[in-house]
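hey so i finally got around to running the thing on that chain from the lab meeting. sorry it took forever, my laptop kept dying and i had to restart like 3 times. anyway pasting the input first so we r on the same page abt which one it is
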Amino acid sequence: MAEIRTILFADGMLDATVANGVARITLAQSGPEGKPMPAGQLCVPLVQLPTLANGLVNLLRQVEARAKEAQQQRQAAAPESDSIAVPPPGAFRFQS
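ok and heres what got predicted. didnt touch it at all, straight out
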């Protein structure tokens, strides 16, 4: 059985620093009145930061590709409708 990990939700970033070979990224959540509030800190060894960043970029590309596919399918099904931004699928597994 997989180990249960803490889940941290963030919808932004407040700050990022590098010290002693570690990148420290302060994550944010939208708080009252939309003001960002600290949600936690992501600490990544600096040598691993490019790998993490590339993984996030690849994830974003996959989400964009799936959203584009969904929009094309929707347009093919109803070509007379206005082009409306279609959200990406609710869930899928990231392919690294």
